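During the second year of the project, the team shifted from modelling isolated chains to modelling whole assemblies. The rationale, set out in the original proposal, was that interfaces cannot be judged from single-chain predictions alone. As a representative example for this report, we include one of the complexes processed in the last quarter. Its constituent sequences, exactly as entered into the pipeline, are reproduced here:
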Amino acid sequence: MLSLRDLQTQFETDLFDGNVAKSAYILKDGISVKERIAIYRHNVFSNYRKTLSAVYPVVERLVGEQFFRQAADSYISAYPSLSGDLNEYGANFPQFLTAYAPVSKLPYLPAVASLEWLIELVFHAADEMPKVLEKLINVPEDKYGELHFLLNPASQLFQSNYPVAKIWQVNQADWQGDCAVDLQLGGCELLILRKDFSISINPLAKGEYLMLLGLAKGEDINTSFCKAIEAQSELDLGGFLQKMVQEGILVDVRI
Amino acid sequence: MQMRDDYLGANVQSTVTSIPCMAGVGLRATHYQEILKTLPKIGWFEVHSENYFGAGGQPLYFLEQIRNYYPISLHGVGLSLGSSDILNQLHLKKLKNLIQHIEPGLVSEHLCWGSIGGRSLNDLLPLPYTEEALSNIVSHIQQTQDFLGRRILIENVSSYLQFKHSNIPEWEFLKEVAVRSGCGILLDINNIYVNSINHGFDSMHYIDAIPLGAVEEIHLAGFDSNGSCLIDTHGTPVSKEVWALYEYALASFGGKPTLIEWDTDIPSFATLLREALKAQLRLEQFNVVAA
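Output from the structure prediction step:
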């Protein structure tokens, strides 16, 4: 008799392999053991497929439903779920696509997937009330350079060498214009932000992106700004920070 | 939709947390706005706990809002109590946080396993009904109850296979789980019916075996058939066989909070309310007879 542990391990293997040679631990009764395991395989796979398709609608639209299903099935077998919470499922899909040979002709696809995963993270992220202004009241201006800003938890920064924002935009259900995207448009730097439960994808200039990236990593204003002006010499620090505070992108500050 | 005036007095602006002996429905994101706008007459709502494990955003906001008007029951699908793995502490902590935040009337999980070796299959998989599996799940339920500081309910699941070395009938196993761990039972009438067809046992005999005081909630749902097996899809109305078995269960256990589960091909809220009304009328009819 199999121990509980051996039975559960064997069942997992049989479910993924569809090979029932060793499934003598399942009662033969009416319909075949193979068919019985297939019911569970179907439930498990369709659950994951549905989850991936909900998180990665643009990737699915780009490759088509049938192709997406094949990619999803390969992913499901290669990357086991590590959480009982299905909302965490699919984090490695962009990484999987990078190495998935059948999509090698769509080099921008992993980047589109990364953007979609960040949107998912932003959807579930914490709500945070901005407290920058009240905290700055007591800070002398000559100390501003040493400040550490905190980004809104419901925001994510994104960078790609492909025009991913444009690709994402023309593949939204409500997009009315031309669906062609010229890959020569080049890359993009983006800020994904949730405000009043609606999520927007906002283009950033290179310097703005580097500035926010530095702050997100915990660097102070001076350090981030030094990197940012290398990429964008005309960056107006005061104006940019003010705008980021006003729009609720910088929500807190550590002195 | 016409509602009887005395149907399901809504707990408008109440802070009542306990689940009333009425019909409730599963809360789905597509219905959030409509519920808050119309405050329908329904006894309570149930949610899948994991869908509210996120740190913030829309799901928690709407759950908090709806919680202001209706009692909430948290129904988990991912704790994998029957696994031979140790319990996932992070999952438990998230559940505890949610409980502290929402103050649910009931907290429930399943008589199943879903993960092994740290990998999850995110499904409600059947257990072998053996003494080993029994003492394993009882110990996990006790740990969970100790950690959460409250009693939980355990729900029987549908199954499409049986393990050869199972040597305890499912109903005995469920009863023993409740007796040994002190947990309550969430009796899913649809799952009993589905299993009775799939595995050939008497569904009424199953109900007769369940200890009278243990059942605290009932689930009703619809099933599909794949030709050789009944599959618990939660995507169709409750069948007439399941309604009949529900009436039999009410006669045995008395009225219990009853949930209409509808998780796939989610219908309009009005359709859900109509299904709930069918359960509510049976609950009332039973209560009248009992009184």
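Residues 1-14 of chain B have pLDDT under 50 and may be disordered. DSSP finds nine helices and twelve strands in chain B.
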